[in-house]
Amino acid sequence: MKKPPLIILESHYVVEYAKTNKRYRLSKKRKLNVNGKYVGKVARMAICKKVGKEDFFLLHCNKKWEVVYAFDYFDALSLIDAKLLAESHYTGVDKNWIKTNYTEKQAKKYLRKQKEEVEKTKCGFCGSKQFDDGIMQVICSDTACICNKCIIDFNQMLKDETYT
To answer: What range does the domain containing 67 cover?
Structure first.
């Protein structure tokens, strides 16, 4: 497979991944639904771990490694359980798993660096950072940053007659 996934997908680090090409048949027994819509066949799957935890997660992804479907269980999955679950969806995929060799230490370092980047990008008007309460996005140019809340507030001010 030409392009492996990033070290982190949906806050989990990737342990193994597989491409679900034409050789692997999507099981008719398993119907993957997201918000009531049938997902169908996905291009890739990843078995991941959350940093500091022992349980594994199975993520179904598109070709760009964007998560389309994630299995969330009350009981922790082992690596073998995750592979068996994947095999129940895609017959034959059990022979296609590729180890990433990413370590938990690398994942922690990657997450720390991501957090530092988010910390640097704060709104130049209100000082909020992305993921602060109500802040969904901070947009930055080379010289300034603005959050979605300030954009909404400024847009309302422009519409308000007292500011025109």
So the answer is: 8-105
